[in-house]
Amino acid sequence: PVEATDDAFWDQFWADTATSVQDVFALVPAAEIRAVREESPSNLATLCYKAVEKLVQGAESGCHSEKERQIVLNCSRLLTRVLPYIFEDPDWRGFFWSTVPGAGRGGAEDDDENARPLAESLLLAIADLLFCPDFTVQSHRRSTVDSAEDIHSLDSCEYIWEAGVGFAHSPQPNYIHDMNRMELLKLLLTCFSEAMYLPPAPDSSSINPWVQFFCSTENRHALPLFTSLLNTVCAYDPVGYGIPYNHLLFSDYREPLVEEAAQVLIVTLDHDSATSASPTVDGTTTGTAMDDADPPGPENLFVNYLSRIHREEDFQFILKGIARLLSNPLLQTYLPNSTKKIQFHQELLVLFWKLCDFNKKFLFFVLKSSDVLDILVPILYFLNDARADQSRVGLMHIGVFILLLLSGERNFGVRLNKPYSVRVPMDIPVFTGTHADLLIVVFHKIITSGHQRLQPLFDCLLTIVVNVSPYLKSLSMVAANKLLHLLEAFSTTWFLFSAAQNHHLVFFLLEVFNNIIQYQFDGNSNLVYAIIRKRSVFHQLANLPTDPPAIHKALQRRRRPPEPLSRAGSQEGASMEGSRPAAPAEPGTLKTSLVATPGIDKLTEKSQVSEDGTLRSLDSAPQQSSVEDSPAAEEPSQAWREQRRLSSASASGQWNPTSEWVLSWKSKLPLQTIMRLLQVLVPQVEKICIDKGLTDESEILRFLQHGTLVGLLPVPHPILIRKYQANSGTAMWFRTYMWGVIYLRNVDPPVWYDTDVKLFEIQRV
């Protein structure tokens, strides 16, 4: 053991003039850190304590000299290197939360300061250092002689890093300050990463003590830092100020800071909204003033501030910024490589999710104009691009979750009717139509040509289509055919009988058709025509065999087709020009495991749309099956749970469908509306064909466009919307996904590689 007072020994760790974080990682190998931890724990403890002490001293003095700044940077690099090895050992986990005996040895500190746990001193020092004039922010003073007191009286709200929410002044960009901020944020993120070393907890209530303290009122910089992080991310424009190829001439030093800021931001916002009091949405307070009249809101100030943003111009700034960054990978300009491609779209999607989840006013703002489509198109691009890639399952999930959340609001369905003219090169059939057509074509592509692990998402994808269907004014022929192809694939007997919940997919599709026929018949002649052409599918469903020999025979047929869905009969048109096919992951790609997501019944809550357009939540009491044609009768929740339980055995081939089981749901298939439509229109269409000897569809479409079914269809069913509801299952999923992304994205330096993380497993494709 080396005495803590032996300054000459300890100073050599941080006094070296210039090292980089990469040097520290190379000079301090993992094996040595673990060896010290096991064999001379007191030395490791002293090293950590001394490094924190140096950061505290730097924060106290204000880092005026170059030497002090170098010491602060070296200490923060060293701690970034060592902390993961402290977290991976359960015996050390409490170390930073204990007070160091005799910490007052320097004599300068007051006694009450001694009682602070090491973690708190470290976090407060980092916060102070992030607003340190001439180190991480521009000094406002002309004179260089600053006394130490000024650091304590400094109002960090005047030193916010970037203009945007709550701050109008954009400071001069400064490369050195950006690099220093980035190093400190990396250390902060490493402090927060203790969460990676705890296995996923089913209750998800485990609060991260580092985040809890940092985002509490103890941190006097909480507001300016939250604002700085948010504004730095949302104001970033990677295009190189509009000059093509600019990024090749000047290495963009802002991007690493923006990435780090985005990662720190989403981790501080890791807050389970299902279990805690919901943030206030009345917006009576301004961004800064905390009014006593307000309900307290969450303890976590970052979540609190996020939920209180309410000015239109702030929402506009955030939405424009996120949309600009999400669209960046899609910018295939005429000059290849002329724009810099950002890599942090997954962090941005998590941030967007948090904004919508914690701030309902923001969600309504997003849906108020067609700006929401600037978020939708990049998400559909990522979903389509990642559909064959096993290592990007998490990206698929978060994209679908965001669309599920948006689809619960009527405005989203209405916005989808805007014509789609932006031609982003995507590996999908060419079509002319609206954003709704784009969504349906991409979803069809995911279902028919994604990889196996995406099957749990089918429920979610179709729920989104059901939610928007009552508002879709006119589907293109391409999209109409895609929907019918899905119905065809999902209603084959072997698919229906081979797992306990497969028939739900048919229910969802029938609900889509019923919504469009009942509420949007007039503009949807393409869909009506497609239904007439594929009428045999509906007749087969109505006459589904339920006797045991037929069920047995259907399941025998299952042994042959390996894929659950064929692409046959889907008439794949040529893909768009300039698009690349969705590729599987390169062998050996690293990915992190994810916890299972809750079933659609837990993810969503049913609401009925009343006459005036308001939503009324449907009680989750067992539904009355008296209303046969109401889709509400479709899922008696008890049976649904039972089936989920039974179906868990289906993978091992033990699922045994019975006649009773088939009858139980066959009788509820909502086919009345479609059967009535076929009964009325098929004879008329056949008559036109015979009379005019027609083989041309345009004449039939013209007839259907002017036709009407008023008074001929059953009474319209109430519209059902399945709204996303927060629950601890998704909160846990987001935590594992977010940390998995952060783990994989931090490769230089590789902060967490080869440490014993418990939150997820690292797998190779």
UniProtKB/TrEMBL annotation:
GO cellular component assignments: Golgi medial cisterna; Golgi trans cisterna; membrane
What are the Polar residues biased-composition ranges? 646-655
Return any one Pfam family short name.
Answer: Hid1
Q: Using the UniProt annotation, give all residue ranges assigned to the region (Disordered).
A: 549-655
Q: Which InterPro entries match?
A: Hid-1/Ecm30 (IPR026705)
What is this protein called in UniProt? HID1 domain-containing protein
Lineage of the source organism?
A: Eukaryota, Metazoa, Chordata, Craniata, Vertebrata
